[in-house]
Amino acid sequence: MSSFFLEWFALDRDAGISNLIWRWLTAHIAHFSAVHFLLNLAGILVITAINRAFLFSRQGALSFIFLGLWVSAGIWLFNPEIVTYAGLSGVLHGLFILAVIMTDQYRRAFKVLLLALWGGKVLLELSGGMDLSGRSELLGVAVAIDAHLYGLIGGLVLMVLRGLLKPGCHHPEISHSGKAVD
User: CA 136, 139, 144, 147 torsion: positive or negative?
Assistant: First the structure.
């Protein structure tokens, strides 16, 4: 991506506090390279395949905004070593678990399995058990694995706030036909 785009939209500690707040959202649409963008686009396509109605609903948009702010806050507060952040993967981690939980497509046991695997993936990344050097070389920048953790936690926070963990939970904004009704 152009340095102009990163200069104006990425989360950047050097930009100062006056430019900080709007960058907490725009950082997630900025990317370091075309490959970085395409990998994140693939993530969007996976989530769309799981639960298109959620992703393109008002609830999906609000979840995106919340997760963008949540991930940016996590990076800002807990990762001072990250001077410039751009990318969607942290937000995608949160959207993935929300899309899985809110779909009628899978049984509860399968949803729990998917969430456990997703959480396990993030734990492997954090522990160094998953080698991300190839991905870093491909992107041309280090992978901000903590952003994946913040997105996962943010998705769990939204699930708790919305009461999505209750057995037999109904999602009124998503019809059983899979069409958004909000």
Answer: negative
Please state whether beta strands 11-12 and 84-85 pair in parallel, antiparallel, or not at all (unpaired): antiparallel
Compute the distance between CA of residue 70 and CA of residue 59 in angstroms, rounded to an integer: 16
Angle made by CA atoms 84, 44, 136, in degrees to the nearest 5: 40
Q: How many CA atoms lie within 13 A of 135 on its CB side?
A: 14
* 74-105 confidence digits (pLDDT tens): 999 999 999 889 999 999 999 999 999 999 88
CA pair distance 118, 170, nearest whole angstrom: 23
Below-70 pLDDT ranges, the chain: 1-2, 4, 16-20, 133-134, 140, 164-182
As a whole number of angstroms, the distance between CA 62 and CA 55 comes to 10
User: Between the CA of residue 12 and those of 3, 62, 113, 117, 119, what are the distances in Å?
Assistant: 13, 24, 37, 32, 28
Q: With contact defined as beta carbons under 8 Å apart, do 11 and 84 qualify? A: yes
The residue written with tokens 């992107």 in the block is 139
For residue 7, the one-letter residue type is E
Q: Are 103 and 50 in contact (CB under 8 A)?
A: yes
